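Posting for a labmate who doesn't have an account.
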Amino acid sequence: MLSRLPADVWDYVRDAPGTYLWLVALVGVSQYVRRLPADRAAKLLEANSTNLDRLRRAPIKVMVTSLFFTVGTSWLFYAVTYSVLHAPTEHWLGTWRWLAVLGTAHVGATLLSEGWVAREIRAGRLPQSERTTTDYGVSYAQAGAAAVLAYRIPMPWRVPYLVVLIVFYGYGWFKNRRDFTAIGHLCALAIGFACFWIAP
């Protein structure tokens, strides 16, 4: 049984090429950013941020490149979450449908949350500086993948899985309702749930 473990692990990784290529790229880019001087790193992150200013100047570029930058979380966390959420979703949906869900969740949640920021700035409830707030990372795509994966989980386990997802992301919003990332996470979760039709 144990003798098959390396082959089983390789099969698991091989059958989710998008997940693990993205993970390798994420690690590589983040290691590169960490080696830069602080001012250069800040400029690079700002240039690839999905804030209102960058979305106006280079929307397609930042929508793509922002998915390859992240800070503040251990690589063990990413290895586990990519293996537990993204890989089984890619196994189930196939690479292209998995990418469609991720792209829809990432782009949709970004536009909705930044649209909220724009509205709040116009209403005077947020300062103009919010237009250039640094915003990048993989969490919207991750929320979308976690949500659509619910349709793969058989009953009765689907119910506690859904409860955990909703409580986890709902708590982030309840704790700070004026946090655009918390709003974005809820939007990404809803988009992922709405992607049930893409399942095979």
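Reply:
Got it, the structure tokens are right above this. The radius of gyration is 18 Å.
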